[in-house]
Amino acid sequence: MTDRQLIQGVKGTRDFYPEDWAFEMWFYEKIKEVSQLFGFQEYEGPLLETLALYAAKSGEELVKKQAFTLQDRSGETLALRSEMTPSLARMVAQKSGELIFPVKWFTFGRRFRYEKPQKGRGREFFQWDCDTLGLDSPEADAEIIAIAATMYQKLGLTPQEVRIKVNDRQLMQKKLISLELDEEAIVKAFRLIDKKDKVNREDFLEMAKEQGFTADQALAMIQVTEEKNAYLDSPSLIKIFEILKRYGVADYIEFDPGIVRGLEYYTGTVFEGWDVKGEFRAIWGGGRYGNLTAEVGGKEKIPGVGFAMGDMVIAEILKANGKYPTLPQTTTKLLVTIFSLELLDQSINLTNELRKNNINTELYLDPQTKLDKQIKYADKKSIPWVTILGPNEVQKNTVTLKNLETGEQKTISQEQLLNELKQNSN
Amino acid sequence: MTDRQLIQGVKGTRDFYPEDWAFEMWFYEKIKEVSQLFGFQEYEGPLLETLALYAAKSGEELVKKQAFTLQDRSGETLALRSEMTPSLARMVAQKSGELIFPVKWFTFGRRFRYEKPQKGRGREFFQWDCDTLGLDSPEADAEIIAIAATMYQKLGLTPQEVRIKVNDRQLMQKKLISLELDEEAIVKAFRLIDKKDKVNREDFLEMAKEQGFTADQALAMIQVTEEKNAYLDSPSLIKIFEILKRYGVADYIEFDPGIVRGLEYYTGTVFEGWDVKGEFRAIWGGGRYGNLTAEVGGKEKIPGVGFAMGDMVIAEILKANGKYPTLPQTTTKLLVTIFSLELLDQSINLTNELRKNNINTELYLDPQTKLDKQIKYADKKSIPWVTILGPNEVQKNTVTLKNLETGEQKTISQEQLLNELKQNSN
Q1: Which of A7, A45, A69 sits opposite B297 (nearest CB)?
Q2: What's this model's pTM, rounded to 2 decimal places?
Q3: Among A198, A291, A306, B274, which residue has the fewest nearby CB atoms (within 10 Å)?
């Protein structure tokens, strides 16, 4: 470096300082808890895949506009993982002979999308994915939805704050066929309907016209997305709603014929998480896919259902509803101070003893620093306790323990110290 | 897809099926435990950085030969994170006014290097990084080494299996200056010495000649790397070894004047983890760096010390020493079977009750499958318990609980069931 300007991070990426990372870990713990409660196993995949994998199944927009791509030294085009489902499909197809079906897997990891960075949206973010493969049943769909609803509960989000909108693409397909739309037109119609909530009626009609639909067809499409009782024509949705009622999460659920999802690989039930006030974009989304393993080149069509929930919108939703957690600033229980260079060894011995007893202990690492500065350091780092080992303590084989919150201090034996700190363990 | 060939993963990347990921999570739990025991806080950084960040500080080899690079749409060259230290330096420099020093941070995340994939080495791997910044003291160096030694202990690796080789670059510098080498030649000499263990004596002398050293200088260099008592000339090393003795980990430690590390940013103590038999490459490595924050463009020189330990060599070392862990195949406690379609609702209710009591429960999701097949499924998935809710049980408000390991089964009330499973919680 010659110009001595601080090198900047890449736009849309995030630096996770300990206080930022604490949120991710808190969310991850909840993910683990909820997923395992439903009997799901954790997996992970590579962050680099061939571009071909994504081209095989995602909507065009995602691949061409949103992928971070690079050339391998062998000339192959690779992409940073933009979503998990294609890797999942590849992994399941790859070992379909060995795996025990249904496969019920979850993961929490990074995704990359070349999007315009904005509130709740970065180019690099984390996502929770949860999928059941090898079964095509309303029970499997209902369970996946119930997992997301259970996460709402664990996050403290109420049905007054967040909802899950559910629809069935097959039901929609039937309705659209009755409008005399062919298969190709139906794909277009789904893409159009997916954007409906982002534009006004006039713009929707205009977009429909551009896509080659007649005005009657466009108006009929709008009507279809507003039929609030259309689910009664879908035995599968009826069953799903019934099961979700049994799971005690019905208050979060609503049928919404306007939800179709943008990705082309969905073939049945589709769902999205939304905040009730509609201030944010979809919190998460998912659905049933019938052909994914075959589309990535697998021998069999293994049906699946799953969802993905990102970390950034969830954080915004929690903040907006006053549910963002207060997280501990440190897991360190106490700071062992150093009275003087001569007494350093005693402080090291004490530190060692505490750590052997599994007490998270920081030793002050500069024996030249004055004691009051060491204590201030502990306070600034939110470490609740400090010990002082001066000549008096060493002579009597005791230690002074100070609680930085209350200011109280007492001189006790090392054995008492261990007991005290173990009792105060959180 | 037209050719219906399964799309392959990218060479050198890894698919983590649940059994593979379980090892990573096991290692990560140990990392968290050990790091927090020493009072370190967890952080993370982006996986994408500008190439400039790496060029600013790493050895040339790492950047030019080993980086996965890509062009941003704005034309800037980005690199997938090949090591953590540059990101750490950038993050610390960026907030140096707000952070409380010493900063003691750890992280466990992905790194990418375009290397030839082989045993213990992939193009995409995970690494544990642990660093103390803002202090230049032998106490800080000793603590970092003690953390790695404590990890050996937690992994069950003994001093008969693994060691930590320690040296001091400043000590080496003094020795090399006495050979009449100037600063530039010393940089070359370090790079050469770092490769010494990988080649025989003859090749080393040849390499030295190519680098412009005289035969006398080359021989003197070899001699320097073999002076087993040279640490007595380094007050800092003497202090470090003394502290490590106090920490009770001295058996793992040896002075090795042949260890200098390949990266150019090290300015003091350097260390590497090795298996005693010498069957593997270095398990991990680290050292003291004086100028990193300034080299990435920060205003101040903030001294630091740290190490990085990868997941892949550790796994090989554990296997070679019979210490690779036996990991549970599932966290699921029981499978609730479905007796018949008519009794599905009862099984859902029971499942819901169990989950409300935080018992990890899988519900069999296909009500059409025969009961014995459902039980076989639980067995194959290593789920320890199954419940059966048939017409008899439902009538009497009981449930049959079967232990798949012992084959024992009993019919009990739902309340007893909850108690039984809570007692058997691990």
Answers
A1: A7
A2: 0.95
A3: A198
